Amino acid sequence: MFLISARKLRDHHFRRSVIYILRHDRQGTLGLIINKPGVLPLSRALDDIDIEYARKHRLYYGGPVETSAITMLMENVPTSPLVEHIAGDIYFSNQRIVMERLLKEKKPASKLHFFRGHAGWMAGQLDLELRRGDWHLIKGNPRSMFSSEIRTLWQRLIRKLEPLGMIVRATGCTAKMTCTGTPGRVRNPA
């Protein structure tokens, strides 16, 4: 599932965010902000990593919780006790040994993202925020997480969820409507 921040949400951590929900149970909710890639390469974030391929991967902002921890979302990896299956061919891990293995295998950035921090809610907290209208919960396409257009994902989704206005097509104008310059389009002056 994708959690999309509403236009009205002003929290600087979550404003204009798309969060991929990894877990939701009685203990709470865990997710990663997927649409905020950073400019810092993974190799600069980890001083002790000596794998050259780490320079080719950016570090995404995953959320304000545990910002010193790195988490990975990956596509098409072999199952392992150190890797958790999320949905379809999407997997999640925060294990260093998994990260080193994937970097040595030269897993491309189009199939592997690294996140600094994560988003988390205590039991019942996210339900309250959803009722308040801070978020939209939709079935998401996990493959869009690895899209080259990830930065614009929020804008594309929010246009569908919270349209700013509507254009009405009409064959003529009435006293309550003002015609625009385009024949057949009208706007309500109210």
List keywords for this structure.
ten-stranded mixed β-sheet, globular, three-stranded antiparallel β-sheet, disordered C terminus, 16% helix, 190 residues, alpha+beta, VC0467-like, 13 strands
* CATH third-level topology: VC0467-like
User: How many helices in DSSP terms?
Assistant: 4
> In CATH's first tier, which class applies?
Alpha Beta
Q: Strand content of the residues, in percent?
A: 35-45%
Low-confidence stretches: 173-190
CATH homologous superfamily identity: VC0467-like
Number of strands: 13
Radius of gyration: 21 Å
Q: What is the end-to-end distance? A: 38 Å
Largest sheet: 10 strands, mixed
Overall geometry comes to globular
Tally of individual domains = 1
Concise structural overview:
With 190 residues, the chain is of the alpha+beta class. It has helices at residues 42-45, 96-104, 125-132, 153-161; strands at residues 2-5, 18-25, 28-33, 37-41, 58-61, 65-75, 84-87, 90-93, 112-122, 135-138, 168-169, 178-179, 185-187.
3D structure, described in words:
It is a single chain. The longest helix has 9 residues, at 96-104. The protein has one domain (2-161): VC0467-like, CATH 3.40.1740. Strand 2 (18-25) and strand 3 (28-33) form a beta hairpin. It has 190 residues and is of the alpha+beta class. It has helices at residues 42-45, 96-104, 125-132, 153-161, and strands at residues 2-5, 18-25, 28-33, 37-41, 58-61, 65-75, 84-87, 90-93, 112-122, 135-138, 168-169, 178-179, 185-187. Strands 1, 2, 3, 4, 5, 6, 7, 8, 9 and 10 form a 10-stranded mixed sheet that branches. Strands 11-13-12 form a 3-stranded antiparallel sheet, with no helix packed on it. The protein is globular, with a radius of gyration of 21 Å.
